What we know:
CATH architecture of the largest domain: 3-Layer(aba) Sandwich
Structural class: alpha/beta
Number of helices: 10
Number of domains: 2
Strand order of the largest sheet: 2-1-3-4-5-11
Distance between the termini: 27 Å
CATH topology of the largest domain: Rossmann fold
Largest sheet: 6 strands, parallel
Helix content: 25-40%
Amino acid sequence: MIHAIVSGAGGRMGARIIHMIEAAEGIALSGALEKPGHPAVGQDVGEVAGLGRKGLKVADSLAQVLPQGEVLIEFTHPEPSLAHLKEVAAAGKAMVLGTTGFSPAQIAEIHALAARTRLVFAPNMSVGVNLMFKVVADIARVLSDGYDVEIVEAHHRLKKDAPSGTAVKLAQVIAHALNRDLEKVGVYERKGLIGERTKEEIGVQTVRAGDIVGEHTVLFGGIGERLEIIHRAHNRDNFARGAVKAALWIAQQPPGLYDMQDVLGLK
């Protein structure tokens, strides 16, 4: 039995992860935490998640619950996520990290810390999205330079980072497949008299509205035709289910940095 800890237990994603742990075999919830001052702190985690009393209270620091678990699952914000990764690495535990919005310097630190622990780090833990990463790379290699590439992502109005981590990852895998430097060819906003589109650029556009859970479209536009690959998330359960799958997997792995492609055997 794998004993898991959920960070951000009072949030929407944290609640769905707790539900998926409850439904899965081979894993149990052994700890939960929220930021200090959050209304969920001190409450029964089952009642917070809508599952009924579980006899496990939400803590306000990782230090209080880390000894009770083997793997931390975190979908929160960059700063606390990085701080928690340091604690996990120091304790020799494992972590599943789905937080997005990290700076390049923070990502470099995550990569360095991963050498001392077992980490699954992925911007999206949906099985469908991770298959999409593989498919769009294959399509890009086949179509090569004959098609323009555009990525459009849409999320709810409360999402704080843009573009989404998933859209950035899509752009990265396509750029790699096309032997392009995304830092040079990525275009994230268009306005005014911008001139003709270059053949090399990869457009990444953002939509924020209402309660959209997540939608990503990759458009390959040629002369006389276009090919679109679309993933729509109807709720957060697919992300939460993938995170639980990753937690079960990473607990059995040697130290290192992994992603969902590793978890799903897509590499």
